[in-house]
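Quick note —
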Amino acid sequence: MAFKDKAALALATWFGAGYFPFASGTLATALALPLVLLLAWAAGLHGLESARWNGWNLAAAALLTWPGIWSAGRAEKLTGERDSHKIVVDEVAGTFLTLAFLPLGAFQCLGTYAWAFLVFRILDVAKPFPIRQSQVLPGGWGVMVDDLLAGLAGGLVLMLVWKFLPGWMDWGRLAATFSRGEVLL
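Predicted structure written out below.
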């Protein structure tokens, strides 16, 4: 196998995560979260304001998208499978996009990552309109675009929750509030 093909498979499977025997997309999503955490830590370390943080996260999603389209398309040809469960780079890019619209302060709460994981996976699996329809695109585009749309939709959901129900992002606070019988709004 040529080096280019090995590189395409490595990226498309997110360095082997796609070969996990079940729920490989869920695993890839979980593996993306520490990368977002690392990026948030680096952004905070450099004193970036939220607008620049969002730019970093969007850049990470974009940097994964273009090679992801190429590698997913190449992996489809190599495996002979359309949108194989082994191709998970799309989940990684979608996860970054899900978290790209929150202010940097949201990342101090681990609940943010849990909500992002759940919201993105639900949207990625359920594929509401127009996410499912985007899968008809050819090659790597069809593989990547549905997850990018799920990431955008998930980002919108999280942004609205953060803006209008910020306490819901902090699961520890949420659990304590419900255990006291209070309503958190």
